[in-house]
Amino acid sequence: MSVSPSVSTAVAAPTQADLLDFARRTAADADLIASLPLDPEGRTWVRLEGPGGSEAWLIGWPPRTGTGWHDHADSVGAFLTARGLLKEHSLATRLPADGWKTLELADDVDRERTLPAGRGRAFGRHHVHEVLNESTEDHAISVHAYYPPLPLIRRFSRTGQILRLEHVERPEDWQ
Questions:
Q1: What is the pTM of this model?
Q2: pLDDT score at 2
Q3: Separation of alpha carbons 51 and 32, rounded Å
Q4: Domain around 121
Q5: To the nearest 10°, the Cα dihedral for 75, 82, 85, 57?
Q6: What is the number of structural domains in the chain?
Q7: What residues of the chain score a pLDDT lower than 70?
Q8: pLDDT of residue 99
């Protein structure tokens, strides 16, 4: 009697590079980008099918809008500007996952990136950042992907070098 080896149907989790590649390919779909309804007052978004079970979003940014400081908990992610210009402020430090409300940041943790159309970045777990459309006139559009799908988003406020955990959002808050 012959026994066949079992065939694994498990799919490898997408890496940060896979997520950024997805964002790049999606941003190149001019029809998809043009189909996003844009609101002059607030951000708009459409959920997309990301690679390997990831969560993905197409997001429209009116002039002078942003996310505020936040992280994506245990998810890795990537985003890429499809149209316009976005700016990312981030912290080059890993924050504790739980058990704190206020932290004093070191003086050298701030990073800033300008991301014109076609540029993006990938990031690891607990990456704290804010994303902004600083234009006074033009909408921006971006593609975002996260794996595993976002279990939560922690929102922070910042005054100088003091970072405060303000609240935690769960998927039901944004879906």
A1: 0.89
A2: 47
A3: 17
A4: 16-173
A5: -30
A6: 1
A7: 1-10, 174-175
A8: 81
